[in-house]
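Course assignment 3, question 2. Fill in each field.
Student: A.L.
Task: Predict the tertiary structure for the chain below.
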Amino acid sequence: MKIRGFKQCGEIYRRVHWNNRGKKSIVWRCVSRLENTGLTCHSRTVLEDMIGLATVDAINKLIVQKDGFLTILKENIETVISETGNNVVSEIDKKLEELQKDLLRLANSKEDYNDIADEIYRLREERHKALAEEAGKKGSKQRLEDMEKFLNEQSTLLEEYDEQLVRRLIEKITVYDDKLTIEFKSGVEVDV
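Answer field:
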């Protein structure tokens, strides 16, 4: 989970053990306020307890609204599945196979094959990008399914902060002057 400041410098926050006038606490502060990053930042310091309460509140908002949210989540899962269904990689593989046959034919007849070789390299890069995109979509689908499973299993509101649950569900928290925005790994954002 990342905590990031917004209006000031946009840097990440770091967890700090703080001793302020003899009172010890754990807070999150902007890195540019802790280190010399060259940026001047006046973003607020946030107590860890406040972040914990905000994340519990955000999760509970999703639980309360889970019926409507689950409908949207299922639509998102179906969209990811349908986008993953196209066989770009298999089409590229077919083109590559044809080009490799042409390359062998031209090489055996001692003709110029540079254009075909360039096209093969281009298609290999395109194939690599398509595989990476497909893996990203599978990861998105998994995160959406994890959120759906959690909401279906959750019958009551959370009463206290659960570190493992937060790490499993929340991608990042953005600190604003007047609110915190909790972004879940499924892509949903909740303002607290």
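Instructor remarks: The beta strands are 2-5, 13-20, 23-30, 46-47, 170-175, 180-184, 189-191. The first strand starts at residue 2 and ends at 5.
Grade: pending
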